[in-house]
Amino acid sequence: MSVAKKQYKRVTTKSLVDMKANGQKISMLTAYDFTMAKIVDGAGIDVILVGDSASNVMAGHETTLPITLDQMIYHASSVVRGIERSLVVVDLPFGSYQSDPKEALRSAIRIMKESGGHAVKLEGGKEIKESIKRILNAGIPVMGHLGLTPQSIYKFGTYTVRAKEEEEADKLLEDALLLEKIGCFAIVLEKVPAKLAQKVAESISIPVIGIGAGGGVDGQVLVTHDMLGMTHEFNPRFLRRYLDMFEEMTSAFKKYNADVKSKDFPNESEQY
């Protein structure tokens, strides 16, 4: 006999830990504006990530590096105004936490105070331990991010799968255990082998949310613009497209253009 899964009126960091303990999968998508956040939240998605991927899909940059703290706060505050249920996690952008734990804390405080977000996400393990601890000591929830860390793209030189070799896999597991120990409430694992991701998820009590990390983790995250088919040039193996909005939107825009040019729009019923 199956046990009914608990329905959460408001998702919190504790909700996610409880969901893992109860075997309930966690859903997570990105949003960067009020309208999209309202739709995602209304669909019952557990976590909304205000990702630094806004640098790519909203601003058109090649990497996530150029986006600023002020821009992340702008996007996050827009998202927060659109939600009622989802937990809102905000990426700390490149350069706002890596070099100095005090700077990391200042950045996290600005995000929490000025956007109203519920938690922050940082990329890295042992090397940013002091920054994470400083933020946690201030009472700000932290989500970790291991595996492929896009803010370090110039160090890696490629977006290929991470931790395929034993040494890097061992370090990833050690970092995950460390993030749990110091108090992170969840970890994103990006583009790592499925068996390793499952091992990590089974080794720690906090949720592991995967992107390109297989089905053995506690939840999944995708970039909303990707899964809706708006960014049609991006085709990694882990991406499942639920719509082809590039084609749908292009068709609609062409029809509108044709109707305006032919004087079909507006018609008699569309005028005052």
Number of separate strands: 8
Q: What summary fits the major beta sheet?
A: 8 strands, parallel, barrel
Provide the β-strand percentage band. Answer: 5-15%
Q: Which CATH class of the largest domain is shown?
A: Alpha Beta
What percentage of residues falls in helices of 4 or more residues? 40-55%
CATH topology of the largest domain: TIM Barrel
Unreliable spans:
none
Secondary structure class reads: alpha/beta
Q: Please state how the strands of the largest beta sheet are arranged side by side.
A: 1-2-3-4-5-6-7-8
Beginning-to-end CA distance, first to last residue: 60 Å
The CATH H-level homologous superfamily of the largest domain: Phosphoenolpyruvate-binding domains
What is the alpha-carbon Rg in Å?
A: 20 Å
Work out the count of structural domains: 2
- Can you tell me the overall shape? globular
User: What CATH architecture of the largest domain do you see?
Assistant: Alpha-Beta Barrel
- Assembly type: single chain
Compute the number of helices.
11
Order of helices and strands: HEHEHHEHEHEHHEHEEHH
Q: What's the pLDDT, averaged over the residues?
A: 94
Task: Note down, in words, how this protein is organized.
The chain is α/β, with parallel strands linked by helices. It has 2 domains: 13-241, TIM Barrel; 244-272, no CATH class. The chain contains 11 helices and 8 strands. The chain has helices at 13-21, 34-42, 54-57, 69-80, 101-115, 129-137, 153-156, 166-182, 194-203, 224-227, 245-261; strands at 26-30, 47-50, 87-91, 119-121, 142-147, 186-190, 208-211, 219-222. The protein has an 8-stranded parallel beta barrel with strand order 1-2-3-4-5-6-7-8, surrounded by 7 helices. Helix 5 packs across helix 6. The longest helix has 17 residues, at 166-182. The chain is globular. The model has no long low-confidence stretch (mean pLDDT 94).
